[in-house]
Amino acid sequence: MSPNLANQGKLIFTSNCINCHKLTDQRLVGPGWAGITNNRRPEWILNMIINTDEMLAHDEEAILQLEDCLTRMPSQDLTLAEARAILEFMRKNDMQQVKQKDGAVHK
Q1: Which of 7, 69, 81, 82 is the most exposed place for a label (fewest CB within 10 A)?
Q2: DSSP bridge partners of 21
Q3: pLDDT > 70? residue 81
Q4: Distance of CA 76 to the CA centre of its chain
Q5: What's the whole-model pTM score?
Q6: In whole angstroms, what is the distance from residue 18 CA to residue 9 CA?
Q7: Separation of alpha carbons 17 and 30, rounded Å
Q8: How many domains, in total, are found in the chain?
């Protein structure tokens, strides 16, 4: 994981994603992000970020997610580099979630 890239991703999350997504597993408007890098391939995540309309039209997992959330994710017009930064931030978040759960179990 690249800490600098994750920090860039956090800034993008704060300006583009935070209104619809939580860093926990709770759904806001869209699904929570906790565990996403453990449950989805990096390519899927990147495509969902930068090719949202195409994914929602053709990808079975994305279509099921839309049916669950009932709200279509708007295109964010992000570059591949920005999407990679968000992916690194998601990885960092997932690593922190695991550490917190491990700490709670061992107390």
Answers
A1: 81
A2: 27
A3: yes
A4: 13
A5: 0.88
A6: 12
A7: 9
A8: 1
